Amino acid sequence: MRYGFLALLSLAVPATAGDLSLSSPIDCDLDGPCYIQQYVDHDPSDKASDFTCSGLSYDGHKGTDFALPTYDMIETGVDVLAAAAGTVAGLRDGMKDEKFSDANAAEVEGRECGNGVVLRHADGWETQYCHLRQGSISVTKGQKLEAGDVLGQVGMSGRAEFPHLHLSVRHEGKVIDPFDPDGTITCGEVETDTLWQEKPTYQAGGIVSIGTSADIPEFSEIRANTVPPVTDDSPALVLYAFLFGTQKGDIISLSLNGPDGAVAQRDTKFKKAQAQSFRAIGKKLKTDRWPAGEYSGEAILKRGDVVIDSQKLTLTLP
């Protein structure tokens, strides 16, 4: 995949953590609501592997994707920050924020990065920031910046299927994974030599959010944060979980309880890996209203015997 105004090249051989020091490129907590959806692909075949030998990547992916959980956060505005001091070497703005599809593929071709900024740093280093919000870029070519300076805001321009910032790091034109700059992977071992000042927590898949709905929602409603709310006479009472990075064999356990006891419960095993997905349980209304009181929902994501994420919520009906 080409990223338009600067090409992304093959994964590099070794760099060391002392060569460049990166701070977070996004002004959003990566332990929630934001999260890292995908990492640099280290597998030279047509398969994909992140730096932990897990599947949070896709074939040929040459950056780290910092994701927003819902589309409406684009309008709210989440700042993209310079990850290190440098000079603006290139930029582009003016592309629409819209989900990539076959319908706009021709328009995006050759400009897959969307609206973006490239910073040039000392000693042959570059960072590239892609998929920024249309009209948000606040820097100019040749401008000198410090780490933490605002470049623009997270959007969904270019080849993007969800709102996120794609950060690429390069040294002498070669792609570097900031989580594994020497390019040497040892499965099962924690990588300590990184380019990060404070390394973001690695989460091998998880629960983006859980919520309740008056009916089984469309995935587009969950992503847009427009799920219909539950009222005392809703036609159904539904608990859903928005998930990322699930693998074949993972199990999502959903349970919903009310003032009169269990409403619904189900364990679902994933038949294939999915970058983003949702699962839901619920019950149809069979009387004139739902019992008044407190309802509690819980989602637990397990990989084998290990719980990799869980979330709870409460809902009170009058």
UniProtKB/TrEMBL annotation:
GO MF: metalloendopeptidase activity
Tree of life domain: Bacteria
M23ase beta-sheet core domain mapped to chain residues: 60-178
TM segment ranges: none
Leader peptide range in chain numbering: 1-17
Keywords: Signal
Coiled coil regions in record: none
CDD domains found in the cross-reference section: M23_peptidase
Xref: PANTHER family: L-ALA--D-GLU ENDOPEPTIDASE, PEPTIDASE-RELATED
Name used for this protein in its record: Peptidase M24
Organism: Sulfitobacter donghicola DSW-25 = KCTC 12864 = JCM 14565
